[in-house]
Amino acid sequence: MTVDSFLKKAWSESGPKVISGFSRPFYHNLSGLMYGRRYDKKAYGGMIRHTEAGMLTQWASQVPENGVIVEIGCYGGLSTSYLLSGLKKKNGKIYAIDPFNSDLDKQAELTDDCVPLEKKPTKELVASRLENNGFGGMFELIEGYSQEAATAWDPSIKIDFLWIDGNHEQAYQDFKDFEPYLAPGARVAVHDAHPRYGYAAVVEDVKRIFNSRPWTDLEHVKSIISGKLAN
């Protein structure tokens, strides 16, 4: 199946989508029930669905031993916690990038208006939350913007899983910025990539990302499109 035909099916009325509260394939629902309700979505202020959370945990558990995950868009640490839940099995580490509540004037200039800036959590709050969830020593919170983090990235650190959920106007740019550091067979997943319950700019960027090079294991989970680099 080509990328275009996969996306067409994923985004069509007959594709894998929400049906009476369930998704296709069924194991996405099972992952959501088993792993996707561990953390209080309302308290964290996150916007991922339980099925998406469950699959983030599953995907994180599939990285190599001592694997590395980069998360663009941490906010209150909800998706970070689910990723760490899976990553814990592999003694891995996550680098979570977000400006948090710093430099709100600049954030107001760059915002995609999807997140209320006046309610953004602090880096300290998120760090404390992750520590309390049992993930001490497994994460590094990078306060700033993804472009800055990519420019300063240590090229010796190869990324096994890139989770893109930051500014919705630059998903493709986020991918290109970190693409040189992706390990062979790395997974890339993009949130809010659905025409009906996502963000239009992300939908277009996902087309560009997944048509840019060969991929395997393409999956659609609610508003997430994910795939692994073909070796």
Explain this structure to me?
The protein is an alpha/beta fold and about 230 residues long. It has a single domain, classed as Vaccinia Virus protein VP39 (Rossmann fold, 3-Layer(aba) Sandwich), CATH 3.40.50.150. The protein is built from ten helices and seven strands. Strands 3-2-1-4-5-7-6 form a seven-stranded mixed sheet, with helices on both faces. Strand 1, helix 5 and strand 2 form a beta-alpha-beta unit. The longest helix has 11 residues.
What's this model, at a glance?
It contains ten helices and seven strands. The chain is of the alpha/beta class.
List keywords for this structure.
231 residues, alpha/beta, Rossmann fold, seven-stranded mixed sheet
Compile the SSE list and pairings:
Layout: H1 3-10, H2 26-35, H3 41-44, H4 50-60, E1 68-72, H5 78-87, E2 93-98, H6 104-110, H7 123-132, E3 139-143, H8 146-151, E4 159-164, H9 171-178, E5 182-190, H10 200-210, E6 215-221, E7 224-229
Parallel strand pairs: 1-2, 1-4, 2-3, 4-5
Antiparallel strand pairs: 5-7, 6-7
Helix pairs in contact: 2-4, 4-5, 9-10
